[in-house]
Known about the structure:
The chain is an alpha+beta fold. It has 5 domains: 2-63, Helix hairpin bin (Helix Hairpins, Orthogonal Bundle); 85-309, DNA ligase/mRNA capping enzyme (D-amino Acid Aminotransferase, Chain A, domain 1, 2-Layer Sandwich); 315-401, CATH 2.40.50.140; 429-574, DNA polymerase, domain 1, CATH 1.10.150; 597-666, Rossmann fold. Helices cover 37% and strands 19% of the residues. It contains 24 helices and 22 strands. The strands form 6 sheets. A 5-stranded mixed beta sheet has the order 2-11-10-3-9. Strands 14-13-12-15-16 form a 5-stranded antiparallel beta sheet, with no helix packed on it. It has a 4-stranded antiparallel beta sheet with strand order 5-4-7-8. The model is unreliable at 62-68 (pLDDT under 50). The site of zinc ion has 8 residues, from loops.
Amino acid sequence: MPENIQQKIEELRTELHQHNYSYYTLDEPTISDFEFDLKLKELQDLEAKHPEFYDSNSPTSRVGGEITKNFPTVQHQFRMYSLDNSYDFNDLEDWENRVQKTVNGPVEFVAELKYDGASISILYENGKLKEAVTRGDGFQGDEITANVKTISEIPMQLHGDFPERFFIRGEIYLTRKNFNKINIRREEEGLDPFMNPRNTASGSLKIQDSAEVRKRGLSSVLYQYISAEFPAKTHWELLHKTKSWGFHISEQAKLCKTLDEVKEFISFWDLERHKLGFDIDGIVVKVNDLAQQKNLGYTAKSPRWAMAYKFKAEKVETELQAVTYQVGRTGAITPVANLKPVLLAGTVVKRASLHNEDIIKKLGLHEHDFVYVEKGGEIIPKIVGVNLEKRNTENPEIEYIKNCPECGTELIKIEDQAIHFCPNELHCPPQVVGRMIHYVSRKALNIENLGSETIEQLYREKLVENPADFYALSKEQLLPLERMAEKSAQNIIDGIEKSKTVPFEKVLFGIGIKHVGETVAKKLAKNFNSIDDLRKATAEELVQVEDIGGKIADSIIAFFQNSENILMVERLKSYGVQLERGENTSEVLSNVLENKTFLFTGKLSLFTRDDAEEMVEKHGGKNISAVSKNLNYLVVGEKAGSKLKKAQEIGSIEILDEQEFLNLISK
Ligand code: AMP
Ligand code: ZN
């Protein structure tokens, strides 16, 4: 029997490896995602029951695209501790005294930059990268090997006299340069910029598609060797050993004979840190001798042999010259403080974000106040207070604007949001441009080479005002634009032409109906054959579609009540843009479920809800979103609640478990 199971497990692994290969490498899927998930689930169950057949290379633990909607959780063999913090030299001296009490004899330190990113633990076996895991809660983290493998600095194969098995820890971070690049790209795609490099780095590690992670351009630095035994006597030696095996260690780390040298190091980097190409939030001081480290041990939270020194956020005082208001591409208003230029954290600051009216009120800002400006982890500095002693009492309080600075329309403030909006979607210049940028963005019509700057120019030249105008552009109209070469003009024209083949669901996303994001657009495209069908739909019909609530339905209806939108849609249609569902959007497997309606409820374990719904459609059935007399089948998973109860009350609805549903479609 066990032999059969082992064989079965191995067969499944081989088969799934093969499917993975066909899917990712050959780009020729051999089975549906649904079937793949079923097999994977079968393998997972077998592996859970038979840990003796564990294989780290099993498809179940491999990260890659769709199958890792959730990264597997991994226990850390050695706990990942936090660091104790100190904020001044007194704290640091106290720490040294505590260390001296435990350790007899002189203590040396290693001072290192405290990189501001996401920490990581990587396991190497026989010189090969085996597994990379996030810090998580310190006891267990997420396995993100595939993503970490995309970071060029992290070696896949070691050199020299490396030990057979060990962990190495370090930080994954983003240089300011790469962070800015990401934001420039996001802006071109009409997306909001990321706030700071640290969050962006840790967020990037959790992207499902590792090819996307690669594009982020992450960096790494490794600072701790971990295993039961050490191939050296000091941390300093260890660092240099790991370097000789191929790891990237910090160039700035310094061996300090005394705490005074540590203090010098700290003072130096407190001033110089802004010249580094990346963010640090302090210095980490470690006892160098590994025997002393062992002696000192750990508290419940952190090693006693290490201490972080946190830099203070820098704060300066300057004069507020004026508050101006920016209108975003979605119509959101952002107040901006224009400041008398001042040096802060190595850069000249002229502006600070004020976010919204509430923040201005809370600060009680008056015109020409002297304000304190701070730079934390965020790129844009913020005002943290007012120097009241310097206020001229004749200066009036700042009053928030009532009308849009771009188009004059009266602003609205949506309840439960602190932000003001300009409601003039169709004619407020930044919003007009924003809508066109959204239309060409990658996830919408994906018109390459047509960047935000070009769109802005075209708009200024009055050549385009809405997405339909792109299709009327000629090369001759493009050529006179700034920095427009013959070749780029041709590329743009070709790109626009190519967008006519982009499927309906993406066009639906691209035309920018409020609240219709990518997922909603997909759902709509599945349920309505064409834009005309969608236009005819009533609110009642719209909310029948899963995930479409009243707010979205209202917004769709409002969109089609506007004659300018209708004109745009008609023009897009006349240019040949896909405003109907194409033949191949939904592949048909059978019609066994024809005229039958389905709804899934409770926690499903054999398949995901998305997959199940896809299967319903592929077999000719329809998914609906609520229990009513129109429902034929309710498929229930674990812990089904009110929907099941309601279906039982109605009586005419057939109730199935997951297996019964599978039987139904495999008939
Ligand atoms: P904290 O998150 O403030 O408790 O600080 C602890 C974190 O600092 C660790 O989890 C590491 O991710 C990070 N760190 C950055 N640079 C270093 C370094 N050179 N040595 C140790 N930890 C570091
Ligand atoms: Zn406006």
